[in-house]
Structure formats: C-alpha cells, structure tokens
Amino acid sequence: MGAGAGGQLLLPAMPDEGGDQLGPLVDALALECARAGGAGTSVELLVSDALARSVALPWQDQLLSPEQLPLYAQACFERAGVEVDDGWAVHCGFRHFGRPGLAVAIPKAWLGDAASRMAAHGLRLNRVTPVTAAAYWRQPTGIRRTVGLLLLAEPGRLTALRSVGGKFEALEVEPAGGDPVVPLRRLLRRSGTGAPPATVQIWQSQAGMVDSALVAQHFAAARIRTLATDAWSR
Fold first, then answer.
1. Distance CA 202, CA 225 (A)
2. What are phi and psi of 127, to 5 degrees?
3. Which domains does the chain have, with CATH numbers?
4. Rounded CA gap, 60 and 58, in Å?
5. Measured between alpha carbons, how far is 10 from 30 in angstroms, rounded to an integer?
6. How do residues 4-33 score in pLDDT, each as one tens digit?
7. pLDDT per position as a tens digit, 99-110
C-alpha cells in the first residue's frame, strides 16, 4: 500500500460521533508498523466505513473545477440527508468519465489523533481510506455492459456497489443488526433493480457475515465470488 508500510485497520461498528475508543487499536498498529518499517515509514490505513460517511456523486456534463467539486459533494451529502460540517475532511472524485463519482468524509479530529499516534512512533500517516472508497478506486474494470455487484459486509452495515463494465453506477447502504438475513434480503432487492448482475463479489471484514447461498438464490444466473479480507490493501 504505497511507499513504506501499509496498515489495515478495520474498525468496529460505532455511533457516527464515536471513534475515541479506537485509539488503542491505532497505537497497536503503529507499533507493528514501526517494528516492520522503522522510523520515517509512511503508513496508509484502510479503515471501516463505520468511521466515515459516503455518498455517490452523479456525473456532471460540465466538468467541475477543483474548487467547485467539494461544494458539489457537500450538496450531495445534504440531498442524501447526511450531515457533514467543517469538522469532517471530505475527499471526492470521479474515477471514470461520464459515470458517477464518490465522496467520503472522515472526522478531522480522528485524523489528527491518528496522525499524532503514528508520529509518536516515528511514522508518517500518508493516507486514510474507508473500505467503500478503496473498493471504488481499486475494483478492476470488467467486460463492457456486464453488470456487476460488489457486496461489502462489516459489523452493523452492508454496502453494495453496482457497476456496468466495471464502472461504478450506484451505491446502496443497509444497516445490519440482529438477524443478518433480513438486511441482506433488503439490500439484494434494491441492488437488483434493472438488469441482474452477471457477477457478484462478496467482501467481508469477518468470515460468515454474508450468506452466499442466499445471494446465489437471489441472483441464480450470477457467478458468485468471495474476496479475501485483504483485497483492498494489496
């Protein structure tokens, strides 16, 4: 993951305003990276979507300037009913011309705290990427016009990224608590609108979070593939 050492930190589900309790996890990862790479190592963190807020950005025919893009992302967050104020660091962009982009926001206070904890071990925090953003930017392109579905499962949430020809088309998020089957059924129903996917890829922060048999039953003609936990940190 970039220069130096890469760290994968998958944070547990938490309230949107939480995060303070995650300091010890960052400390442990910093110590591990310092031992592996030594002082001055650049670290990239893959973090749980539980820490972030995400929204799809509909394509704009009039290309936005670097100054306009954050304002557009802010407007998309507001339209989605997601509150993101000055206390959040927002990163946004479009991976493919003519297709939707993605904006993600992470609390600035958490970023500052994580950077300080890394610095205490002689490390430099280079990048923090939520799981959905990593999947958006790193997912390989596919066959033209082929519909694909990528399911991301973490404690407390399920996320689906729908693509056509490997190019992002839509984002769906479903809270997951209690019976895991109910939220999965809801997400599959919403994600199956339109042409059914030819491929379904499943990524789980912990094994057994997604019932692949249920996915296969819902999309009988699709090829189902389970990805490794470190798929986004390679």
1. 6
2. -160, 145
3. 1-137 (3.30.420.380), 139-226 (3.30.420.40)
4. 6
5. 14
6. 355 555 555 544 444 566 788 888 888 888
7. 999 999 999 999
